[in-house]
Write a structure and sequence with these properties.
The protein folds into 3 domains: 67 residues, no CATH class; 93 residues, 2-Layer Sandwich (Phosphorylase Kinase, domain 1); 246 residues, Transferase(Phosphotransferase), domain 1, CATH 1.10.510. 24% of the residues lie in helices and 23% in strands. Helix 6 runs antiparallel to helix 12 and helix 10 packs across helix 13. Pfam families: PAN_2, Pkinase, S_locus_glycop. One of its GO terms (molecular function) is protein kinase activity.
């Protein structure tokens, strides 16, 4: 193992060492060889240099040819500076062409390059972006593995860096920009924007939501939070954390208000309301075709996967249900209310004594008294999938007065190889891809397994729905077996563990490669 970071094989010819094999073959392929914000050029010596606007973090280390410390900005960004001086600088971007792009990009679809730039500029964590057609790639934090390519290389892309100046933001009334992308609204401004909170869009466990219009004609949704006991500083810190999280399938937080006990959050307004309004009130809305429902299932899975697996700290939603899935003008799903469980002071490191969430979507562990993990969201997501298929609530009263529990029927049909199209929302008249319907039902059954260790992580759910992984037949959850074996339907659980579950396994088979398929199985 050489100091270059390469594994090398050399031969001794009685005079010198001769290199005959190395891995990686080229110096610039060594991971993070030039450190953060350093660029590597295979055709120059030294290999490493700093991006424009950056300098060596340690001049002594670079003189000793140790570039791992990377580079730092010559001048700090103005992001987060609350100055309203009209002469203040604003951050801008500089372009670096013919670059191989770094890893860990966040991708989203935007209308143009300007929109891509704006998304990055309005996020203090965003340090660079690249735009290709309608695809916007964003990078947060340090940039690693930047490689300078020549014009003759087949692959050449431009990465655009946030450098020195940030444009001055417009203010709304007495509202002030904080933490880069968030605006601290005055309560009176939101009171005026919502016409004294007169147009109520809905409500839930965290508070009520009202429609509002800002002075620049931007339509927003304003949520008045309830039962918030946090102090000013802690609330602002938590909100700022949520505000830096941006994903195509997460509702964007625009700002907040914190004046004493008055705690409000300001979100983008979603033109097509929430998913429940289209599933359970069909007479009042447009019928969701199966293709749209499948895309909604996939989009929600991507949003939850990002919260669980891609954020610096895992964010557990705690209340996944159709009411918290909002739809934009193109029916792209946006997970709403993420992070609010943290805002109300939930501590998931210890057993929870008070349930958070909605009955019918609660995982068994909420009642059994064990610590809550991201798998509680997976369970709720599975229950929501069943409603996406059937177009009705999972638990309904039948004509004979009994409670019908749709997941039990769906699990039986799925496992026994029955007519899955018969499970579909009647308004679809059977117009759906039968393989997709079966896949969604299988995923839903896996997600609601009693043992959380048997449920798949949301990242795997995304791969399954994208067609990158196959999904095997799931076992019928023990809590549903009583429904399958009898006509009695019990909705709530009192125990989430049983020795009988030890025979259940989980199995996912990868089909992303034609050369290898893998499967994993673990006992509960």
């Amino acid at each position: 193992m050489d100091v270059s970071g390469q594994i090398k094989q050399l031969s001794w010819d009685n005079a010198d060492w001769n290199l005959f094999w190395s891995q990686p073959r080229q110096q610039c392929e060594v991971y993070a060889y030039c450190g953060a914000f350093g660029t590597c050029n295979q055709n120059s010596l030294p290999f490493c240099d700093c991006l424009p606007g950056f300098k060596h973090k340690s001049e002594n280390d670079w003189n000793l040819k140790d570039y791992s410390g990377g580079c730092v900005r010559e001048m700090n960004l103005q992001c987060g500076n609350n100055s309203t001086n009209s002469n203040a600088r604003g951050d801008k971007f500089s372009m670096s062409s013919y670059m191989s792009l770094p890893d860990n990009a966040l991708s989203m679809t935007v209308g143009n390059a300007g929109e891509c730039e704006s998304v990055c500029l309005n996020n203090c964590s965003c340090t660079a972006y690249a735009y290709d057609g309608n695809q916007c790639s964003l990078w947060n934090g340090e940039l690693l593995n930047l490689q300078q390519l020549s014009q003759g290389d087949v692959l050449f892309l431009a990465i655009i860096m946030a450098v020195i100046w940030r444009r001055r933001r417009q203010t709304v009334g007495s509202s002030k920009p904080v933490e880069g992308s968030l605006v601290a609204f005055a309560y009176k401004d939101l009171q005026n924007a919502t016409k004294n909170f007169s147009d109520k869009l809905g409500g839930g466990g965290f508070g009520s939501v009202f429609k509002g219009t800002l002075p620049d004609s931007t339509v927003v949704a304003v949520k008045k939070l309830e039962s918030i006991s946090q102090g000013e500083k802690q609330f602002r810190t938590e909100v700022s954390t949520i505000g830096t999280i941006q994903h195509l399938n997460l509702v964007r937080l625009r700002g907040f208000c914190s004046e004493g006990v008055k705690k409000l959050l300001v979100y983008d307004y979603m033109e097509n309301s929430s998913l429940d309004s289209h599933l359970f009130r069909a007479n009042e809305s447009k019928v969701l075709e199966w293709k749209t429902r499948y895309e909604i299932a996939l989009g929600v899975a991507r949003g939850l996967s990002y919260l669980h697996e891609k954020c610096r700290d895992c964010i557990i939603h705690c209340d996944i249900k159709p009411e918290n899935i909002l739809l934009d003008a193109e029916f792209c799903p946006k997970v709403a209310d993420f992070g609010l469980a943290k805002l109300v002071g939930r501590d998931f490191s210890r057993v929870l004594t008070t349930m958070r969430g909605t009955r019918g979507y609660l995982a068994p562990e909420w009642i059994s008294g064990v610590a809550i993990t991201a798998k509680a969201d997976v369970y709720s997501y599975g229950m929501m999938l069943f409603e996406l298929v059937s177009g009705r609530r999972n638990a309904e009263n039948s004509e004979d007065g009994k409670v019908k529990f749709f997941p039990a029927l769906a699990a039986r049909v799925t496992v026994d190889g029955g007519d899955v199209l018969g499970l579909l929302d009647p308004v679809l008249d059977g117009n759906a891809n039968v393989e997709e319907v079966l896949k969604v039902c299988k995923v839903a059954c896996w997600c609601i397994q009693d043992d959380e260790n048997t449920r798949p992580p949301m990242g795997q759910v995304v791969q399954i729905l994208e067609g990158l992984m196959d999904v095997n037949l799931p076992p019928i959850p023990r809590s549903l077996q009583v429904f399958v074996e009898s006509d009695e339907h019990i909705i709530f659980f009192t125990d989430s563990s049983s020795a009988d579950q030890s025979s259940q396994t989980k199995s996912y088979t990868s089909s992303a490669s034609a050369h290898s398929k893998t499967s994993t199985s673990s006992a509960n």
